[in-house]
Amino acid sequence: MSSPSLPDFQALLGRYERPLIQYAHSFVNDLDASRDIVQETFITYVRALTKERAPGAEAPPTEKEHLEGWLFTVTRYRSLDYVRKQQRIVPMPFAASEERCPAPGPAESAEARDEAVWLLKLVDQLPPNQREVIRLKFQSDMSYEEIAVVTGLSSGNVGFLLHHGLKRLRVLAERRGKERSGLG
User: What is the pTM of this model?
Assistant: First the structure.
């Protein structure tokens, strides 16, 4: 396959940039870092197409259905590398004069936004493997087979993790609903 033309690359970016950023964000929890990771993924893609890839690096697939899995897999590995690197860094606290106050949210924030935040907090309580497959399924709208390619799991294992993760989410949501209504 020859290198992509600019319109093809723009279409590729348009299709995959947002889902890849969401996927990277599920690992690193930092929007700027997620964008950087996805940018590195696309740079890796272009270099691989132009034969400038690192020694031993695999060429990206030429078929569309495999390309999505390849992009998500590269994003996953780059995200995991970022997380490992961040775990080695010891944060320095701000001096009292440098502390930043978070900007308050608007008073009229939508109930749907609150519910989405609440649900994401519940998802964050799941084990990492369940959390990852749920995010790939519902945030990136991937099939079991696509999730299996990205995570390296079998599609049966993906189904198992999704089933148990959603079951656990239901229990957490019911418990939280009772607490909110004062019944728990």
Answer: 0.56
The rounded distance, in Å, linking the Cα atoms of 76 and 41 is 10
State in Å, rounded, how far the first CA of the chain is from the last one: 60
* Tens-place pLDDT, residues 145-166: 889 999 999 989 999 999 999 9
- The number of helix segments (H) and strand segments (E) in the chain equals 7, 0
Every domain of the chain with CATH number 1.10.10.10 lies at: 112-181
Give the pair of three-digit tokens for residue 160. 């198992």
Please tell me which of 48-52, 120-124, 174-178 the model is most confident about, judged by mean pLDDT. 120-124
DSSP string, 71-82: HHHHHHHHHHHH
* Residue range 112-181 in CATH 1.10.10.10: yes
For residues 56, 61, 62, 66, the Cα torsion angle rounded to the nearest 10 degrees is: 180
Q: What is the pLDDT of residues 119-133, one digit of tens each?
A: 888 888 899 999 999
